Amino acid sequence: MNNTSTQWGWLAKSFHWVTALMIAVIVPVGYVMTSTYELQVTNQQMLAVNIALSKIHHTLGLLILIPVVLRLGWRLKQTTPDDPPGLVAYQRVLAKLNHVFLYVLLLLVPLSGWAALSVFGELPIYFFWMEGVPGILPKLPLGHTFGYSFFGRMHAYAIYVGGVVLALHIIAALWHHAVKKDSVLRRMWPLAQP
């Protein structure tokens, strides 16, 4: 369960891969969901599709906060595996910065989406089958400086930045595995043994 100097523990691995799986589902669902907003006005079937996708997207957005917060707390409490030998100083700094940005974005993306829906106040916020999850901010007029546009743009830009940071994270893990041939990827792999 605990991390060691050479391996991530099964709990840290579980937080990592559950979060990765949720991201793999929520991002495409979110893109299809937003593309159906305009179509739902004239098409009842599209409205049903949009509501179903909204339920999935909102639910996963709220749920993703759980493993992220637990993982962050666990990481602060636990030791982290040592960097592989041969890693130069700038690579260590880049790796740490990448992880910090990932954590910030994993909190910012769902919270900004929740905030955008909260201040808009005209659409329900879903959690599984429940409708009307409380907002985290009060409803504001559409033209308000910190209204829907502000948080909607924050949500969208955080997703784009998150895509770049996540791509760098994946590329680095694959580079360590295929080029450096060190343990960076193996020690986070779910079935890897120490």
Briefly say what this structure is.
The chain is mainly alpha-helical and 194 residues long. Helices cover 65% and strands 2% of the residues.
What can you see in these coordinates?
By secondary structure, the protein is mainly alpha-helical. The chain has a single domain (10-180), classed as Fumarate Reductase Cytochrome B subunit (Up-down Bundle), CATH 1.20.950. 65% of the residues lie in helices and 2% in strands. It has a two-stranded antiparallel ribbon. Strand 1 (126-127) and strand 2 (130-131) form a beta hairpin. Helix 1 (10-37) packs antiparallel against helix 2 and helix 1 packs antiparallel against helix 3. The two termini are 12 Å apart.
What's the helix and strand layout?
Layout: H1 10-37, H2 44-63, H3 65-77, H4 89-120, E1 126-127, E2 130-131, H5 148-180
Antiparallel strand pairs: 1-2
Helix pairs in contact: 1-2, 1-3, 3-4, 4-5
* Number of distinct beta strands: 2
**Percent helix:** 55-70%
Poorly predicted segments: none
Sum up the overall morphology in one term.
elongated
Q: Report mean pLDDT, rounded to a whole number.
A: 90
What is the helix tally? 5
Please indicate the count of domains: 1
CATH architecture: Up-down Bundle
- Enter the CATH topology name: Fumarate Reductase Cytochrome B subunit
Structural classification: mainly alpha
Q: Give the termini distance in whole angstroms.
A: 12 Å
- Please indicate the percent range of residues in DSSP E strands (runs of 2 or more): under 5%
From the alpha-carbon coordinates, what is the Rg to the nearest angstrom? 19 Å
Q: Could you state the order of secondary-structure elements as H and E?
A: HHHHEEH
The CATH class turns out to be: Mainly Alpha
Give the strand order of the largest sheet, numbering strands 1, 2, ... along the chain: 1-2
